[in-house]
Design a protein that fits this description.
This protein is of the alpha+beta class. It folds into two domains: about 270 residues, no CATH class; about 120 residues, no CATH class. The protein is about 40% helix and about 25% strand. The chain has 17 helices and 16 strands. The strands form two sheets. Strands 1, 2, 3, 4, 5, 6, 7, 10, 11, 12, 13, 14, 15 and 16 form a 14-stranded mixed β-sheet that branches. A two-stranded antiparallel ribbon has the order 8-9.
Length: about 425
Amino acid sequence: MEAASLVSLVPELEGLLRRFDDCFVRKEQRASLRIYVRGQLSDLPRKSIEPMALACGLPPRNLQQFLSLHGWNDAMLRDRLEQIIAREHHDEGAVLILDETYHAKKGGKTPGVQRQWCGTKGTTDNCLVTVHLAYVAEDLRTLLDSELFLPEKTWSDNRERCRRAGIPDGVVYRPKWTIALEMIDRARSNGVRFGWLTFDAGYGMHSDFMTALDDRGVLYVGEVPAHLTGWTKPPPVMLKEHASRNLTGHPRTFPRPRILPGGMHKPKRVDNLAEHSPVFVRQPWIRFHVKDDQGGAVMWEAREGDFHLRRGGRAVGVPTWAHRMVVARHVLTGEIKYFVSNAPPTIPLAELLRVAFTRWAVERCFQDAKSELGLSHFEVRTYRSLMRHMILTAVSFLFLARALRKRRGKKSAPDDLPAAVGDGCADPRELVEVA
């Protein structure tokens, strides 16, 4: 943000930051909060600790200690952020978006860093991965929560390395979808209400994740990989009785569900079902206008049908109740995407596609957080510093999103943050069927 624009918004920024004052013990910490957030909102080319501190005439160690040593309540600050969003930006149609992003880093001391696929560079490189929850409402698009993904073998299993990076012993490897569930539960406990959740195929490949969302009563439309298996019609299931104890002496769960044997009852891949199942091939494609880009209108066509997930993994693999599977095909390129939703049949297909394609908004959030606020500019060596940096970035993002929403009116525009190339999305609430 340009310096002149920031100066004019200082009263609004101060009003927001005062709401976090009780998260800090001393006035020096509250002052450091303001320096950090102002630095992220400034026009500095790099928003790491040293240039932000020097721009204010402070020794860099002041901000370094603010992140790593000072005893302020970062968990309370994160909860307060979510509570503000819950109270002031409530929207029955809001969509939560799950996604991860990559931060290229040199060396091996930054928490979670290892040589792995780096989506930012599109190649294998030294980087770390963070998992995020974004909130997209009619009048606001912002980051809600963030967590570090801790690799299992190179980090979680090496507790000495973790201790050197300040990672508590209680912080261990968790699959990304487990982290996602924890963030969703935390947001709901802080009063965040939303209509939908969406996610990409990295989360949709885990049927346990989707059934956990079912158990929580969370409505979702998530992309799934072509190799996910399930049924368009549920296979017959019997309850198989076992002896009261198995060979290890542990009592068995009894009776246990079991799919009746037979090749016709095996679950099928979703791409196979989309191509060959009568449920899909006997219905026409319905065309939808999804968005506009530099080339004009972007059109997708879709079909849908019942789909039963495998509940309980391969060991049990019994079918769930009927979900909805959507097959979407890009009209020009022929690209095909598969989505699964637990929405009731009364929800129209257009609404499912609106939610599914809302996921593009999180990529814009990452782009803006990195280019405008320095999300990936951190140069820290401890877990606490990294987590605090991500929480403070979310505070800066919320202020920027609110300020720009106010400047342009209540309804946010697709390209509502400066100095970034927009995706040209039409308002996803205006997704329409095309005859």
